[in-house]
Amino acid sequence: MTVDSSLASTTPVISGLPSRRVSSRVRVWPLGLLLAGYPILWLSGLAFVAAPLLAIPMAWELYRRRCRVPAGFGWWIILLAVVALSVLMLGEHAPHTLPKDSGFGRYLAFGMRLADYLVAAVVLLFVGNLTERELPTRRVIRWLCTFFTVTVAGGVAGLVLPPVQVPTLGQLVLPGALLSNDFVRQLTTVSFAQWHSIVGEQLEPRPAAPFPWTNTWGYVLSLLLPWFVIGAVLGARTVGRRVAAIAVLVVAAVPVVYSLNRGLWLALLVLAGYTLIRLVRRGSLVPAATILAAGALAAVIGLASPLAGVMLDRLDNPHSNDGRSNLSSAAFQVALSSPLVGYGGQLSTIGSGRSIAIGASPECPMCGNREVGAEGQLWQLLVTTGFVGTAAYLAFFGRFGWRYRRDGSLVGVAGAANLTLMIFYLPIYTALGMPLLIAMVGMGLWWRSATAEADPERAVAAPAASPAAPVRPMSAGVG
């Protein structure tokens, strides 16, 4: 491998991508199946094992070539080393937590966590090392747009079909030892919504499909949004397609509101603010004004609709704040007791947010242990890998973002938006699984775009902002 040290002094012109055949020697279908084909994997109940399996042919392709690595990748290698070493701590008991389960489950969770970090590295290198001819940027963006549309459809289904749960193929083919684990059984059951009593005491559905959890649904939706805007709205070849894409965004507002996901709401504001800053700095005042106008119109429509009442009710019921604060403090204390490699897995509190009783019951479904390290990627890293692993994770994203910050292309802006969201979500939601993989796909496209001038074969072409007015070359000084 060679460390990438070149950065384009100028950004390539963004124009329509000519039709090119992908080399028969390069197998790009694993990435396509992982993104555009995710609904199939979800319905089969095998999504959680599909990513490591699909990463094998991608890793083989990397092995066959002279593989470059992006700036900061050494920090990811350190993270992988710390995660691997943390297996030695799986049997240790952290202060002020319950003793760990001595069964198979803790090793299964550790293995899945390590696999997530490995697969993320493979996906980043796969996207970044393949040339534009081998893996056209437009094709990857199309896969991401398809994923966004499916996520919106899943959110709507979560509101229309909330009680539906369907056994899957995974429950038929996976060994009983795996299915005896509650976490695996949840992953292999198709459900469209999670049920929570957030506003009042009555359980209400929150959209989750095609994922097991509402928070993951919101995380993925926000990461995919910039790519959908680039590919389906700005890159639409006909007026009809652009109108259809805008209609998808309008429909998406309904499950976004009914998800009662304050983290997602704030993330969308951060995303809009970041995009506006980038557009203004590059002198694209018309698109910036369009975003402001669209935001104002959405606010007016929202305030005049029942959605406003739903959001206000949610903001009036911030009951999870204290629980999150307590778990965050507990995660920091756990890291202090094992600062180098953490404890290899999440830990259970003594008691819960509602009762000191251990275990849920019909009278108190929320009673029982809370998971230390389950309320955000930052806290999970502290618990599972200590301060060293946490620092390596943060250093990787910081170094990567700083190195390629000058890429002003639409691909660069969208990739940087993904990284910004990853940082924003750190203390709120965990990133392992599809959120991390999608972010790595976006960052891989960004890396390839930022280094395109040094290697013309990697030149990135993305959808133009308007069929009638191609985007001009952008200055490398745009931050």
The largest beta-sheet arranges its strands as 1-2
Give the termini distance in whole angstroms. 29 Å
> How many strands?
8
| Percent of sequence in beta strands | under 5%
Can you write the helix and strand succession as a string? EHHHEHHHEHHHEEEHHHHHHEEHHH
What is the share of helical residues? 55-70%
Total helical segments: 18
Biggest sheet details: 2 strands, parallel
- Give the mean pLDDT: 77
Radius of gyration: 22 Å
Based on secondary structure, the structural category is mainly alpha
Ranges where pLDDT stays below 50 over 5 or more residues in a row are: 3-24, 352-363, 464-479
Query: What overall form do the CA principal axes indicate?
Result: globular
Organism: Natronosporangium hydrolyticum
Transmembrane segments: 40-60, 72-90, 110-128, 140-161, 216-236, 243-258, 264-280, 292-312, 378-396, 408-426
Keywords: Membrane, Transmembrane, Transmembrane helix
Protein name: O-antigen ligase domain-containing protein
In short:
The chain has 18 helices and eight strands. With 479 residues, it is mainly α. This is O-antigen ligase domain-containing protein.
Walk me through the structure:
The protein has 479 residues and is mainly α. 57% of the residues lie in helices and 5% in strands. It has helices at residues 29-35, 38-44, 47-63, 73-85, 105-129, 137-160, 170-173, 176-179, 182-187, 214-234, 239-258, 262-281, 285-303, 306-315, 320-337, 377-403, 410-424, 434-450, and strands at 2-3, 68-69, 165-167, 189-191, 193-196, 204-207, 347-348, 371-372. A two-stranded parallel ribbon has the order 1-2. A two-stranded antiparallel sheet has the order 3-4. It has a two-stranded antiparallel sheet with strand order 5-6. A hairpin with a 7-residue loop joins strand 5 (193-196) and strand 6. Helix 6 crosses helix 11 (239-258). 43% of the residues are buried.
